[in-house]
Amino acid sequence: MWPAPLLDDILTSLAGLFRNWFPQLWDHYVEMHQAVCSKEEYRYIDILAPRCPFFAMSQNFGPQAVSVRHKDIKNLVSGLCLIFVLGLFCHQNGGHVVLHEAKVLLEAPWGTILLIPSALVTHENLKILESEQRYVLTMYSAGGIWRYRDHGWMTDIEYAGLHGERPPLHESTWLDGLARFMTISELEASKVAQAAQ
Length: 197
Description:
- This protein has helices at residues 4-21, 23-37, 143-150, 156-163, 171-179, 184-196, and strands at residues 56-60, 81-88, 97-99, 104-106, 113-116, 123-125, 133-140.
- The N and C termini lie far apart (42 Å).
- The strands form two sheets. It has a four-stranded antiparallel beta sheet with strand order 1-7-2-5, with helices on one face. Strands 4-3-6 form a three-stranded antiparallel beta sheet, with no helix packed on it.
- The chain has one domain: Jelly Rolls, CATH 2.60.120.10.
- The chain has 197 residues and is α+β, with helices and mostly antiparallel strands.
- It comes from Sistotremastrum suecicum HHB10207 ss-3.
């Protein structure tokens, strides 16, 4: 296992890529992270790394980390999952990442960093040889955290007990989430505007 300061640096650097390429979505995550961490009963939740707004991380140290075909349906549906690939394997023969709906097959060698909408896209990775090693760090946030905040810091069950019904689902939640994804032109314009300040 890595020393804690090194792991903090790695996680912070990985999160910085998210911030650079998806700034509006980053702001959405940071806003939620600050809202949760500002509540006294949740102050301990800032556990991944400084300046890292993801709420969870999975570490699959295999030694042959392979995921089966799935969607992460509990992740924030309009969010992203960060995947960091490590290990010693021939990325041309195995370990490929498959994004099914997009019909994409990606070679993912050691050091690959992917940001995918894991709650929306069915994904998996292909097997590697028995003699090879593949490890994965994955960072993500559950959509339920946003619902919990949006319903007055109550679970769906608590909300239903108070209001007599489950919390409503709003289309605006989805549309607001989609609006946080920028086109390359919009991203470029925002970077130019930042540099001019």
